Amino acid sequence: MTAADEQRPWVELEKLVEESDAERIEAFLEALPPGEPARALSHLHPQDQVRLLTALDPEHAAELVEQIPDAQAAELFEHLEPQAAAAIVDELPSDEQADLIGDLPREEADAILDAMDPAEARDARFLSRYPDDVAGGLMITEFLAYAETYTVADVVDDLRANADEYREYNVQYAYVTSDSSVLVGVLQLRDLLLARRGQAISELMLRDPLTVADLANLNELHDFFDRHPFYGIPVTDEQHAIIGVIRRAAVEEALAERSDRNYLKSQGIVGGEELRSMPLFLRARRRLSWLSVNILLNVLAASVIAFYQETLAAVIALAVFLPIISDMSGCSGNQAAAVSMRELASGLVRPAEVLYVLGKEVLLGIINGVALGLLIATVAWLWKGNPYLGLVVGGALALNTTIAVSIGGCIPLFLKRMGKDPALASGPILTTVTDMCGFFIVLSFASALLPQLQSIP
Amino acid sequence: MTAADEQRPWVELEKLVEESDAERIEAFLEALPPGEPARALSHLHPQDQVRLLTALDPEHAAELVEQIPDAQAAELFEHLEPQAAAAIVDELPSDEQADLIGDLPREEADAILDAMDPAEARDARFLSRYPDDVAGGLMITEFLAYAETYTVADVVDDLRANADEYREYNVQYAYVTSDSSVLVGVLQLRDLLLARRGQAISELMLRDPLTVADLANLNELHDFFDRHPFYGIPVTDEQHAIIGVIRRAAVEEALAERSDRNYLKSQGIVGGEELRSMPLFLRARRRLSWLSVNILLNVLAASVIAFYQETLAAVIALAVFLPIISDMSGCSGNQAAAVSMRELASGLVRPAEVLYVLGKEVLLGIINGVALGLLIATVAWLWKGNPYLGLVVGGALALNTTIAVSIGGCIPLFLKRMGKDPALASGPILTTVTDMCGFFIVLSFASALLPQLQSIP
Predict the structure, then answer these.
(1) Which value does ipTM take for this structure?
(2) Given CA atoms A180, A185, A189, A194 in this order, what sign does their dihedral have?
(3) Are the Cβ atoms of A317 and B306 closer than 8 angstroms?
(4) CB distance B268–A323 less than 8 Å?
């Protein structure tokens, strides 16, 4: 490889895919630095991405799939043969199986599940029924459980007999269950070291272990792991039977994904993550779906200006300040909305606490509104030499900033209470309201002071 | 407690803090559902928050501190007596100690370190020297290491003798070191179960274990854990000595925090996280620092309008479309910038790949530009019955959207190459450029077609 090719590993990869040489592809991917296999895959033509996954053996393909974003994996799997897809999915950990299956269209998902190992498929079906952001959707179903009648020797023998398989589980606890698979205790494998072989595990185990319900949501799980130093915690169903284990890392990962989604939504990327490896028209359509709602809201807000056409014609300098007032109020409001989003996500504020938020924002809105208003008033006065222009423009910005900050802090709470997604809707709603208010305030102030403003060139 | 008080646990908490009754406070916090202690604390007056932490015994106080956001903890610790603060910090895990110490002003940090247990303080000082987002800043220094000359019996005896202490470590691996504390192997504690007591651990250990360097960054760590199913991985310094262990969960948590910070920055919350429990003037000042830069950029962009005052006076209807074009181009550009931010963060695109991004965005910009342009052209034509107005407004939006999408995708890459923070600067720069371009395009188009537009009422 030349130095230039090292920067663009997909050039070489494309050639290898062309030749369908599984062994050389594997060796090539293996030799790339961390992160590069995923990046190289993303830069391939979508068709070549599919060919690459098909060429690799399922285990290596699964390793690669784990490294790429979920949205990209789902996109790829839609174009794989169900047989090939199933072989790769079989090799994924159970929680990633469920994520992937859940992201696929119904028909493709069923075709893959039908072609999978029946036991794996059953687990994946079971897990994919849970929403992504509750314990059931985040847990893995690979865990060790022993009947409470077992002895230390029984457990150690089982561990020895299945050492290879369990190595993949990466376990440090075993769960102890009653006849009806109700969880009765937890056994730290390390403690077996210090025990007699004949001892019953029911003597060693910790009774009444902490558990989480299968429907516990992400915030509850986050709080749980904040409170307890465990790596993993058993998940139980309504009958207190253990159905899986949720790992701390899975919760942190889901939180990171939620933050990312919220960031993307706040910037108008909807319908899940967008990657540049996705087809052009899909990307254009998704972005446009949000933009087209936004432009209608924009037209609505700007129509306020049309009502004051005469004032504006008389004091054309105002036209310079309309976009400034609209943009700045939007910015101030967005700051308050972002803080509310964060406090909602981390559970520091509840959707019902509108008055609390309002109390914390109104004063701040006044302070910043007055500061920004004074600044813009000075600019306007100095520019046209007319103090009334400064008064109109500065007063309007001060008032509208106060309004924007106050409602910006509350909108996410209202949306959450109505069951809407605040990350998605806060921005457009806030902008529309503050634009309308801003245009109305500045133009009605100007209409009232028209005699003093008409001399402005 | 009444039902209303249950919704507002800080009312009761405030009373208990007033009475400084540590035991009752602890019992009260213990009884609250997950997440509520942190929320209750946040709702207290800052002074009461300090009194609450001082009243609790250090261990319980540390538990509470772990549940609140880092920014809030740092804020609180600035107001604690160094002695009291040190006692609480002593109880925190080493990575959180380092985070907290690192977030404090130099002087407060030193006062607390001086009052801490000397061994803990040494570790905290050592860790806090690393940036937050490299392995050294994210690792814990609590780990088990044994000399390679040890036998299984030696290790088991040590585990037994220190069972209580190690329980807190939550370990499943022990590390095996040479004389010079160079890492030579890793021992899965589970494997001790299956070994003879007299066996040397050097026979059982896995040789040449995978490690990460202390300066490995967050993306490298994320890629590492994506590739390997481990819960934790040893961190080594330049001499290959083991200096800590980094856990998968710590990496995921740091990624979530980075996403949150990026989201907040993109919405204009700078200087770290803002919480409503922070003092009003601090919050106002921080928000204003970003807004005041923004308003200057806004004035700069809007000054373009002033140059075309005569065109605008002749066709006052254009004033309605100026904010629409400015806002919509900003939205389209922000979508592209957000996708670049995500792809940069996840390593799918490199700062140097401007041409790749441009290639992926230009066409998309044209497609969406034409779609939005047609829409606004139709609105303008129907409103005033003048097709030329539609042409000017629609053409300008189409062209400016293409520009906004193209440069929006590239700005984060440029900023990253220059070592600037793309999350913070992309939005304001993008908005300024697209506003200026948008105002210029629509008003110069209108000037060129002025004879056809002058009849518009």
Answers:
(1) 0.85
(2) negative
(3) yes
(4) no
